[in-house]
Design a protein that fits this description.
single chain; binds adenosine-5'-triphosphate; eight-stranded mixed β-sheet; elongated; 4 domains; Calcium-transporting ATPase, transmembrane domain; alpha+beta; Rossmann fold; Calcium-transporting ATPase, cytoplasmic transduction domain A
Length: 933
C-alpha cells in the first residue's frame, strides 16, 4: 500500500489521491468497500500509529512568564525595589532584594498556577471523546477516532467532524465546511469524480480532510492519511493553540489593578511630599536627605497596598470550579462560562434526551381502516401484547402488520440482547419501532432480509422525515416522519380511498395530548428505479397509519427544574416535537407559565411570522416552543437577550451551532451531540442531562461567591496596610532611634516606621495567599440556589465589598498602630531592639486580624456557626500553616535577619490575639444588621 503525493508514505511518481478514481483508491489502499478485517486494522495501527494530531505548541514558558510580569502592579514593585536600592545603599539593598524576591516568587506562583489551569482545561477537552462510524468486516462499528487506520471505511453524516483525510467513495448531497483548512466558511459541495492533480485543497472535491465538518448529507469514504500525515496534521505544528484563561472577572480585576496602581502612585507622591516636609520641619535637614528618608515609606506603601496574591487566587478558584463542574458532568470548554453560569436567568433546553429519558416505547397504533390499538409493556424488552379496547388481539390485521413492517424497514436501528439486557443500537425513536414490531410477533431480521433496501434518504431534522427504497414486490418507497411532513405527501389510504385528513389529524392531536411522540407512515410503489431522490418523495403516497410513543420525563430533570425556579431561573423547552406532545411533557415537568393568559406553546412556524416586537413578547411569555427549526432558535436567543436575559441554550444538531454561539452559554450534548455543536458550545454535558446544567449553575454561583469572598478578604488587608503607612507619615511622632551601622551606633531623629517594606510583603504575600486560598474551597452558601441570578452588569466591587473593606481596614489600622506605639513606649528606650519589637507586634496583630477575619469571610452573609465551623477543613490547614510561619517570623533567628523581626513575650502575643479577635463582634454585628430584613 502506498500513499499519494500528499502522504509521508507516498511515492512522488504516483498520482495524488484526489486525481484517482474510486476503485483505484480502494485498490491502492488494499481495502474493500465493506472495510478492513480486524486483523488488518490492528496491523495497520502498529505500522501507522494512532490517528492523533500532535498538539501544536501552546504558549511557551517565556510567554507565560512574561504574562506574570507584565502587570502594572508588578512594575510598581520592580521600580520600588530599584529606588530602594539606589537611595539607601545600606538598608535599602536588603529591602530591595526582598521585594525582588517577592516578584520572582509571585512570577513562579502565577506561572505554575496558569500552567496547571491550562493543562486542566486542555485535559477537559479529552473528556468528550470523538467517535466515528466505520465499517470493518462488513459491520458498522463505533470507534474512537484515534483508532482509525489508512484503509478504513468511514461513514459520515451531517454534524460529524471528519476524522482523517479520506477519499469519498459514495455520497448523498454531501457538504463540508472546510474553514479549519481553507478559511472558507461557506460549505463545499462534494463529488465523486477525480480532479486535476494540481488542484488546491479547496478544489479537491472528491476528498474530505481531517478537522473539517460535515454540514449536510451523508457519505462513505476511505481513509488515506491519518494523524500527523493529514493536511491538518501538517499545518497544526504551525498553529499555536492558546488556552485563554481570561474571563469577565479577570478582566474586571485587571482594570481594578490599574486603578489601584494609579491610586498608589498618587498616594506615594502625597506621602513623599508630606514626609519630606515633616522631616525637614522636625529635624532641620535639607530637602534631599529628608526626601531620601521618606522614600522608604513610599516604597512600603507600594508593596503593602498591591494585592500581589490576587491573580493566583483567582486562577485557582476558577480552576477548582472547572474541575468540580467536570465531576458534576458539565465539561467547561470556555472558561468565561464558569462565571456566566452564575448569572444565567433563562435556560432553553431541548426536550428529547435532556428533559426526557430518550427511552421511547410505542404505546399506541392507529390505521385508517382498523382504528386504534394499544401495545403494552415499557422499555426495550420486546415483551408485550397488542390490545384493542382492552381485549387481547391474537392476530394483527394486515394493515396493522404493514404499518409495523414500514416501521422496521424505514429504520436504521437494531435491537440486541447484551448480557440479559435489551439494548438499542441507533436512534431511540427508531428503536421503539423495532421493539413494537417484535412485540406483535414480526420477525424483524427476516423482514429486513426479504425487503432488501436499495437506497435511503436519511432523517434530517429540517425535513422531518426519512425515506427508503425497497426491492420487494416490484419496488416500494417507504416514508416515515412527523405527521405534518408525511400527510402532506399522501392522498389515499391502502384500500384506494381518499384520505380523511381531518380524522388523522384528530387522532394525532389525541396521541400528542397524552405526551406522545407521533410518527406517521406512508408508502408508494417505485417506478423501477434503483435510487431515490428528494423529488421522488414529494407526493402520491398512500397513508399507512400512526405510531405513538412515550418518552417519560427524567425524574432528576423535574427536581432540577424546581431548583432552577427557586433560583430565579426560567426554564423553557425548545423542541422539534409536536406542539401537543411538547405541551403535555412541559406540564409534567412543571414549566408552563403560572399566568393562565400566557400562551402554553408556540410553534416554530408561528415564530417565523412574528414581528420583532411580537417575538420579543412571545419569547418572554411562553415557555414551550414546538416544531422549532434551528433558525428559530437563533431568533429566540436574540429575542430573550433583547429582554436583558442571560441565556443558556442547549443544542445537539449541526444547525444549532449559530444559536449556541449567540447564547450567553451554549450547552452541547456529550453523548448525542454532533461535533459541530460541541465546538460551538461553552460547556458540554457529559450525560446529556438537564440536571447537569442546574448543577453547573450552582457551581458557577459558588465559584463567583468564593471569588468575592477572596476579594473581600484580601482587599481590606491592602487598604489597611496603606492606611497604616499614611497615618504614620501624617501623624506618627519622631523619635531618636539608635542604629548600629558597621559596629558604630548612630542616633538619628526620625519618623517612626510601623512596618518595613519586607514585613509588609510578608503580610501581604505569605499570609494573604495562605489564608485566602482556602476560601476557593469553601462549600456553597446554603441559599446559593434560593436567590435570584447575579446581575452581570453589577460591578465586581459592590457597595458591600467596598464598605466591608473600609470597616476592616480601619479596625486593622487602629489595632496595629495602637499596639505598635504601646510596645515601642513600653520598651522605655528607642534602640533598634525596641523598634524591631514594636514592628513585630504590629505585624503579628495584623496577622491575627487576618486569621479571625478569614473565619468571617467563609460566608458573606451567614455567621460561621450557621455554615458549620469545620465545614471547610482547608481553612484550618491555612490557619495552622500561617501560625507556624508567624511563629518562625517572631522567634526564628534567621527570620530576624531577613525581616528585622524580634521575639515577643507570651503576654504580647496574647494581647495581639485579643485585639485581632475584635473583628469578630464587629463583623458579626454587620452581618446581623444586613440579615435583619
Ligand atoms: P428535541 O428538539 O426536543 O430534542 P428532537 O430533536 O428529537 O426533539 P427532531 O429530531 O427534530 O426533534 O424530530 C422532529 C420530529 O421528526 C419528531 O417529532 C418526529 O415526528 C420526527 N422524527 C424524529 N426522529 C425521526 C426519525 N428517525 N425518522 C423519521 N422521523 C423522525
Amino acid at each position: 500500500m502506498n500513499g499519494g503525493s500528499s502522504g509521508a508514505a507516498g511515492m512522488p511518481d504516483r498520482q495524488p489521491w484526489h486525481a484517482l478514481g474510486v476503485d483505484e483508491t480502494v485498490a491502492r489502499m488494499e481495502t474493500r468497500p465493506d472495510g478492513l478485517t480486524n486483523a488488518e486494522a490492528v496491523q495497520r495501527l502498529k505500522t501507522y500509529g494512532s490517528n492523533v494530531i500532535p498538539r501544536g505548541k501552546g504558549d511557551t514558558a517565556l510567554d507565560l512568564i512574561w504574562r506574570q510580569v507584565n502587570n502594572p502592579l508588578i512594575w510598581v514593585l520592580i521600580v520600588s525595589a530599584l529606588v530602594a536600592m539606589a537611595v539607601d545603599p545600606t538598608g535599602g539593598v536588603k529591602n530591595g532584594l526582598v521585594i525582588l524576591a517577592v516578584v520572582v516568587l509571585n512570577t513562579i506562583i502565577g506561572f505554575v498556577q496558569e500552567f496547571k489551569a491550562g493543562k486542566a482545561i486542555e485535559a477537559l477537552s479529552r473528556m468528550v471523546p470523538e467517535n466515528v462510524s466505520a465499517l470493518r468486516e462488513g459491520r458498522k462499528l463505533t470507534l474512537p477516532a484515534a483508532d482509525l487506520v489508512p484503509g478504513d471505511m468511514v461513514l459520515l453524516a451531517s454534524g460529524d467532524k471528519v476524522p482523517a483525510d479520506m477519499r469519498l467513495i459514495q455520497l448523498r448531497n454531501l457538504q463540508i465546511e472546510e474553514a479549519a483548512l481553507t478559511g472558507e466558511s461557506v460549505p463545499t459541495e462534494k463529488r465523486l469524480a477525480p480532479v486535476a492533480s494540481e488542484a488546491g485543497i479547496g478544489d479537491r472535491t472528491c476528498m474530505v480532510f481531517g478537522g473539517t465538518l460535515v454540514t449536510y448529507g451523508t457519505g462513505t469514504a476511505v481513509v488515506v492519511e491519518t494523524g500527523a500525515r493529514t493536511e491538518l496534521g501538517r499545518i497544526s505544528t504551525m498553529l499555536r493553540e492558546t488556552t485563554d484563561l481570561q474571563t469577565p472577572l479577570t478582566k474586571a480585576l485587571a482594570k481594578i489593578g490599574w486603578y489601584i496602581t494609579i491610586a498608589i502612585v498618587v498616594i506615594a507622591i502625597g506621602i513623599l511630599l508630606l514626609g519630606t516636609w515633616r522631616t525637614m520641619a522636625e529635624t532641620g535637614v535639607e530637602w534631599l536627605p529628608a526626601l531620601r528618608e521618606t522614600v522608604i515609606f513610599a516604597i512600603a506603601l507600594a508593596v503593602g497596598a498591591i494585592p500581589e496574591g490576587l491573580p493566583a487566587i483567582v486562577t485557582i478558584a476558577l480552576a477548582i470550579g472547572v474541575q468540580r463542574m467536570a465531576t458534576r458532568r458539565a465539561v467547561v470548554r470556555k472558561l468565561p462560562a464558569v462565571e456566566t453560569l452564575g448569572s444565567t436567568t433563562v435556560i432553553c433546553s431541548d426536550k428529547t434526551g435532556t428533559l426526557t429519558r430518550n427511552e421511547m416505547t410505542v404505546q399506541e397504533l392507529w390505521t385508517p381502516a382498523s382504528g386504534a390499538f394499544a401495545v403494552s409493556g415499557v422499555g426495550y424488552a420486546p415483551k408485550g401484547q397488542l390490545q384493542r379496547e382492552g381485549t387481547l388481539v391474537k392476530t394483527a390485521p394486515a394493515d396493522l402488520t404493514d404499518l409495523l413492517l414500514a416501521g422496521v424497514l424505514c429504520n436504521d436501528a437494531s435491537l440486541a440482547n447484551e448480557e440479559g439486557q435489551w439494548k438499542i443500537h441507533g436512534d431511540p425513536t427508531e428503536g421503539a419501532l423495532v421493539v413494537a414490531a417484535e412485540k406483535v410477533a414480526l420477525d424483524v431480521e427476516k423482514a429486513r432480509a426479504q425487503h432488501k433496501r436499495l437506497d435511503t434518504i436519511p432523517f434530517e431534522s429540517e425535513n422531518q422525515f426519512m425515506a427508503t427504497l425497497h426491492a420487494q414486490d416490484g419496488g416500494r418507497i417507504l416514508l416515515k416522519g412527523a405527521p405534518e411532513a408525511v400527510l402532506k405527501r399522501c392522498a389515499t389510504t391502502p384500500g384506494g380511498r381518499v384520505l380523511d385528513m381531518e380524522a388523522v389529524l384528530r387522532e394525532v392531536e389525541k396521541l400528542a395530548a397524552k405526551g406522545m411522540r407521533v410518527l406517521a407512515f406512508a408508502a408508494q410503489p417505485a417506478r423501477g428505479q434503483t435510487g431515490i431522490e428528494m423529488h421522488d418523495t414529494q407526493s402520491g403516497f398512500t397513508f399507512l397509519g400512526l405510531q405513538g410513543m412515550i418518552d417519560p420525563p427524567r425524574p432528576e430533570a423535574i427536581a432540577a427544574i424546581a431548583l432552577c425556579h427557586q433560583a430565579g431561573i426560567t426554564v423553557k423547552m425548545i423542541t422539534g416535537d409536536h406542539q401537543g406532545t411538547a405541551q403535555a411533557i412541559a406540564d409534567q415537568l412543571n414549566i408552563l407559565p403560572k399566568n393562565p393568559a400566557a400562551p402554553k406553546a408556540i410553534a416554530g412556524a408561528q415564530l417565523a411570522q412574528m414581528s420583532e416586537v411580537q417575538l420579543r413578547d412571545a419569547a418572554g411569555a411562553c415557555n414551550v416552543f414546538a416544531r422549532v427549526a434551528p433558525e428559530h432558535k437563533l431568533g429566540l436567543v436574540r429575542a430573550l437577550q433583547s429582554r436583558n436575559e442571560v441565556v443558556a441554550m442547549t443544542g445537539d444538531g449541526v444547525n444549532d451551532a449559530p444559536a449556541l454561539k449567540q447564547a450567553n452559554i451554549g450547552v452541547a450534548m456529550g453523548i448525542t451531540g454532533t461535533s459541530v455543536s460541541k465546538e460551538a458550545a461553552g460547556i458540554v454535558l457529559a450525560d446529556d442531562n438537564f440536571a447537569s446544567i442546574a448543577a453547573a449553575v450552582e457551581e458557577g454561583r459558588r465559584v463567583y461567591d468564593n471569588l468575592i469572598k477572596s476579594l473581600a478578604f484580601v482587599l481590606p488587608t491592602n487598604l489597611g496596610l496603606a492606611l497604616i503607612l499614611m497615618w504614620a507619615v501624617a501623624f506618627f511622632p519622631f523619635a531618636d532611634v539608635t542604629h548600629v551601622i558597621d559596629g558604630v551606633a548612630h542616633t538619628m531623629r526620625e519618623l517612626l516606621m510601623p512596618m518595613t517594606p519586607a514585613q509588609l510583603l510578608w503580610i501581604n504575600l505569605v499570609a494573604a495567599v495562605a489564608l485566602a486560598l482556602p476560601l476557593a474551597f469553601e462549600a456553597k452558601e446554603p441559599n446559593v440556589m434560593r436567590r435570584p441570578p447575579r446581575n452581570p452588569a453589577a460591578p465586581v466591587l459592590s457597595g458591600f465589598v467596598v464598605m466591608r473593606t473600609f470597616v476592616v481596614a480601619i479596625l486593622m489600622t487602629a489595632g496595629a498602630l495602637g499596639l505598635f506605639l504601646y510596645e515601642f513606649r513600653a520598651a522605655g528606650d528607642s534602640g533598634p531592639a525596641a523598634l524591631a519589637k514594636a514592628q513585630t507586634m504590629a505585624v503579628t496583630t495584623v496577622i491575627m486580624f487576618q486569621i479571625f477575619y478569614l473565619l468571617n469571610c467563609r460566608s458573606l452573609r451567614d455567621s460561621m456557626l450557621k455554615i458549620g465551623v469545620f465545614s471547610n477543613k482547608t481553612v484550618f490547614v491555612g490557619i495552622a500553616a500561617i501560625l507556624v510561619l508567624q511563629a518562625l517570623f517572631v522567634y526564628a533567628p534567621f527570620m530576624h535577619e531577613i525581616f528585622a523581626s524580634a521575639p515577643l513575650s507570651a503576654g504580647d502575643v496574647l494581647l495581639s490575639i485579643v485585639v485581632g479577635a475584635l473583628i469578630l463582634p464587629v463583623i458579626g454585628l454587620e452581618k446581623w444588621w444586613r440579615n435583619r430584613g
